[in-house]
Amino acid sequence: MSCIFCRIVEGEIPAEVVAREPEVTAFLDVQPLADGHVLVVPRAHAACIEDLEPPAADALFRTVVRLAGPVREALGAAGTTIGVNNGEATGQTVPHVHVHIVPRWPDDGAGTIHTIFPRTVKRSLADVGSAIRRAVG
Ligand code: AMP
Ligand code: ZN
């Protein structure tokens, strides 16, 4: 098994685990962006969100919801930024789905999700809306 997050889930390599459930494991990021930076991963290996089977997706998001409050409280944070790099083109470095939960404080110097995009929008909302509705079916 070469996937590093599969190996953490199976307990084959060490990690600072904060929650272990049958279908989901949560552990501290080894290079934290802030104190309390947690990664939440499904047991089943899937590279991207859209590769997850529905039960794995349900379990993953339930655990993210369950941990968001305790992570914030444990660190005395004011909020959390929760995000997923979904696919290599987005900068995802570990190809096993993982949700980042990063505690935030006022004036911590970090930006919002909006600050990672240069807003290179070329199409109208109506055009994009109908394209996505067609794809959703
Ligand atoms: P991403 O860029 O979204 O793929 O994030 C991958 C994250 O995994 C990075 O923040 C890494 O610091 C973290 N990471 C990589 N290897 C480990 C590991 N063995 N234990 C904990 N976190 C890890
Ligand atoms: Zn994996």
Architecture overview:
With 137 residues, the protein is of the alpha+beta class. 29% of the residues lie in helices and 18% in strands. Strands 1-2-3-5-4 form a five-stranded antiparallel beta sheet. The longest helix is centred in the middle third of the chain and has 22 residues, at 54-75. The model has no long low-confidence stretch (mean pLDDT 97). The structure holds adenosine monophosphate and zinc ion. Adenosine monophosphate binds next to loops.
Question: What's this model, at a glance?
Answer:
The protein is built from 3 helices and 5 strands; from the N terminus they run αβββαββα. The chain binds adenosine monophosphate and zinc ion (ZN).
Keywords, please?
alpha+beta, 3 helices, 5 strands, 29% helix, 137 residues, binds adenosine monophosphate, binds zinc ion, single chain, 18% strand, 5-stranded antiparallel sheet
